[in-house]
Amino acid sequence: MRQLVIVAVVVVVCCGSAWSEEPTQLSVATLPPVVVKAVPQSGDTKVDSSTAEIRVTFSKKMIDRSWSWSQMSAESFPKMTGKPHYLADRKTCVLPVALEPGKTYVIWLNSQKFGGFKDTKGRSAVPYLLVFQTKQ
Description:
It is a single chain. By secondary structure, this protein is mostly beta strands. The chain has a single domain, classed as Immunoglobulin-like. It is built from no helices and eight strands. The strands form two sheets. Strands 1, 2, 4, 5 and 6 form a five-stranded antiparallel sheet that branches. It has a three-stranded antiparallel sheet with strand order 3-7-8, with no helix packed on it. The protein starts with 34 loop residues before the first strand and ends with a strand.
């Protein structure tokens, strides 16, 4: 059985060019959005392969039709069965998928190259690595 080991290091520098204006007070409103919930949860090794969508919730409202579901490789990215979309709360983005049993999936939400997940002020979300496995 093959094992996939992934080590991710994300460094965020909160001063300088990360914002067009330097925040005077740190708060959810002044900092970039972050992922607060993912379904399936990152690190889950027992995801049901009948799961039909991936949901990711951010810390604040996001710009509609702006996202970066990025692949590490074509093999580890799920087959999409529809287009991504936000729920009415505009914090939760849904990706319709078809998953296979016994497979590891690796998805970047934003990355070094892509920053399409943005809040309503145009700030890109902090990159988030979503990794999960389906049951056999």
